[in-house]
Amino acid sequence: MNKVQIIGTGSYVPENVVTNEDLSKMVDTTDEWIATRTGIRERRISTGENTSQISTKAALKAIESANIKAKDIDLIIVATLTPDCFTPSTACIVQKNIGAVNAVCFDLSAACTGFIYALDTASQFIITGRYSNALVIGAETLSKILNWKDRSTCVLFGDGAGAAVIKTSDNNETISFYTASDGSKGDYLRSENVPVVNPFVKKSYALYDDNYIHMDGKEIFKFAVNAMGETIKKLLEQSGESIDNIKYIVPHQANLRIIDFTAKRLKIDSSKFFVNLNKFGNTSAASIAIALDDLVRSNMLKPKDKIMLVGFGGGLTYGGAIFQWN
User: Fold this and answer.
1) Domain ranges, ordered by start, for the chain
2) Active site residue 282
3) Of these residues, 50, 92, 105, 112, which one is catalytic?
4) What is the pLDDT of residues 129-153, one digit of tens each?
5) Catalytic residue among 20, 133, 255, 282
6) The listed CATH number (3.40.47.10, 3.40.50.11720, 3.30.470.20, 3.40.1230.10) that belongs to domain 175-325
7) pTM value?
8) Integer Cα distance of 291 and 58 in angstroms
9) What's the pLDDT tens digit per position in 18-33?
10) Considering only CA atoms, which of 141, 111, 136 is closest in space to residue 43?
11) Which CATH architecture has domain 3-171?
12) Is 252 a catalytic residue?
């Protein structure tokens, strides 16, 4: 069986910066209130770019980083809960935009864990020899499903895209994964579909009459801390690694309190956690991918450093990965 490695990363965020101070003029909040409860200082919000456009820009950077050509890619997976449209898929639009004429393309929906799920799915295709070079993208324009009058949600999220290119490993190292789901708690974080207009449907079964993000913050916090803890323990157990051998943990960038609480509970030095949510907020499926690219381009990594990715999100979903940087 083949082994898998990440050979390039890329990311893109819209130019428009929305600070906590900006939001304080829109809803009843303050910079201090947001920052002390979340760690977020600002986020990027699209002024017109859609998910496929920001995905394309992240993809081109990842392809350049990987030193391959678009025609070399034979699989594209985009993880998103904010696609441009139901069809064509965001992945197919990206394929057209970058000229990846040989790629099979599809989208995947797993909310904030989406990039992990997509990376795992692409890796299994490569392990079995079905494909050779995969482009994995996490991208969101969450601003289009936010209620900008709801201070409990609009202060948390941002727009952006991150990407990674993976291929058959040239060495004995590979990516280890752990993924899980708990659909019984799915209503804790929910965004409805478009309203049904159908003469044969007499009753709406939607919980909400809009497509905004609705979240039970307290329940999500408890879930997130438990999910991160379980994922970290399972990854170490499955890979046989010690936490001391992990150079950096790249968590889903949702809330600094969740990350700090997890670090204290597991007695992990908080300096191991790479955090950039202060700049970008929670970008859902893009979060880990953007943070990974940020880490890579910071020149903080050395060959053979072990990296752990940890995600959690709507569904509810969670999971992670361990890999060696080469």
Assistant:
1) 3-171, 175-325
2) yes
3) 112
4) 999 999 999 999 999 999 999 999 9
5) 282
6) 3.40.47.10
7) 0.94
8) 13
9) 999 999 999 999 999 9
10) 141
11) 3-Layer(aba) Sandwich (3.40)
12) yes
